[in-house]
């Protein structure tokens, strides 16, 4: 075995003199060393023995594959998702978190190329927070609770989210205004979902069942969810995606809410998938568009 190690290390050093191989380290049939910034080094070794007393011959070949700046090999292009780093998601909720649960399920079944790594809530005992804790997802309470328990300031929240290497923040029924510090720290990276076709029936005070009642009372024939980027105001950020839901003649607010929520669940997973797959593009006039996964030349 020592003879094998000496021959292998000598062969490897002659090809790649800058890599240090520990004296007792030995690669089995196929090993892969990856430098996340520059190259991927693959070594393929085969071992043959003519008889039990002879020295084994070791034949090794190494290949150097170019990587992009994110550490993706140029031979991994057959699988589009393999080129992309999984994104870290933070989800904000105030209630049961049904949209949060849909997004989380999407990360598990492969629909969303990312992971929910932290949940933020202003209600420590809400259904969404309990769902997160049961699955080992850290929960941050923000803003400060009424009982005076210490909680994060806006600056602390930014620091905490950065410690989780958050790529995108998804508001899923979070009823508090996002602080300016967070908006500035995550430009074009915070999304919210609203249960009407913005800009109609949006703004401060329009949330939950209040939205659906207002839609019905107005006589509007269509409603539906809107996903938009978050700015310093309520529901005024750039619209990214919408789904149309007809308002039926005899609809109640509860019936309309149920149909809109059904579309919310599907729409948010689709948008989260587009975010994590880096399919969001910005038109020259500042309007965000989603590039089609099946037809990259089509946008929505």
UniProtKB/TrEMBL annotation:
NCBIfam families: PurN. Its EC number is 2.1.2.2. GO terms for biological process: 'de novo' IMP biosynthetic process. Its main location: plastid. It catalyses: N(1)-(5-phospho-beta-D-ribosyl)glycinamide + (6R)-10-formyltetrahydrofolate = N(2)-formyl-N(1)-(5-phospho-beta-D-ribosyl)glycinamide + (6S)-5,6,7,8-tetrahydrofolate + H(+). This is Phosphoribosylglycinamide formyltransferase, chloroplastic. PANTHER family: PHOSPHORIBOSYLGLYCINAMIDE FORMYLTRANSFERASE (PTHR43369:SF2). Belongs to the GART family. Keywords: Chloroplast, Plastid, Purine biosynthesis, Transferase, Transit peptide. InterPro entries: Formyl_transf_N, Formyl_transf_N_sf, GART, GART_AS. GO terms for cellular component: chloroplast. CDD domains: FMT_core_GART (cd08645). Residues 87-271 form the Formyl transferase N-terminal domain. It is an enzyme of class 2 (transferase). Gene3D superfamilies: Formyl transferase, N-terminal domain. Pathway: Purine metabolism; IMP biosynthesis via de novo pathway; N(2)-formyl-N(1)-(5-phospho-D-ribosyl)glycinamide from N(1)-(5-phospho-D-ribosyl)glycinamide (10-formyl THF route): step 1/1. SUPFAM superfamilies: Formyltransferase. It is found in: Plastid, Chloroplast. One of its GO terms (molecular function) is phosphoribosylglycinamide formyltransferase activity.
């Amino acid at each position: 075995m020592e003879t094998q190690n000496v021959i292998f290390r000598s062969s490897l050093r002659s090809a790649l003199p800058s890599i240090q191989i520990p004296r007792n380290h030995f690669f089995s049939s196929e090993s892969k060393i990856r430098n996340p910034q520059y190259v991927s080094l693959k070594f393929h070794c085969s071992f043959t023995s003519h008889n039990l007393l002879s020295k084994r011959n070791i034949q090794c070949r190494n290949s150097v594959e170019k990587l992009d700046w994110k550490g993706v090999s140029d031979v991994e292009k057959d699988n589009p998702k393999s080129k992309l780093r999984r994104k870290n998601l933070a989800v904000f909720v105030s209630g049961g978190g049904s949209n949060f649960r849909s997004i989380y399920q999407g990360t598990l079944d492969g629909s969303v190329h990312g992971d929910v790594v932290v949940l933020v809530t202003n209600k420590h005992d809400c259904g969404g927070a309990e769902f997160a804790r049961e699955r080992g997802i850290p929960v941050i309470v923000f803003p400060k609770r009424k009982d005076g328990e210490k909680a994060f300031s806006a600056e602390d929240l930014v620091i905490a989210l950065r410690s989780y290497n958050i790529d995108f923040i998804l508001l899923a029924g979070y009823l508090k205004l996002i602080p300016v510090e967070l908006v500035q720290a995550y430009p074009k990276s915070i999304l919210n979902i609203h249960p009407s076709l913005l800009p109609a029936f949006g703004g401060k005070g329009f949330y939950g069942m209040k939205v659906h009642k207002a839609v019905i009372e107005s006589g509007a024939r269509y409603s539906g969810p809107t996903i938009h980027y978050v700015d310093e105001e309520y529901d005024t950020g750039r619209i990214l995606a919408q789904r149309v839901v007809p308002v039926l003649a005899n609809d109640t607010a509860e019936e309309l809410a149920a149909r809109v929520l059904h579309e919310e669940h599907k729409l948010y997973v689709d948008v989260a998938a587009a975010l994590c797959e880096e399919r969001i593009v910005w038109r020259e006039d500042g309007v965000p568009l989603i590039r089609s996964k099946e037809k990259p030349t089509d946008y929505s």
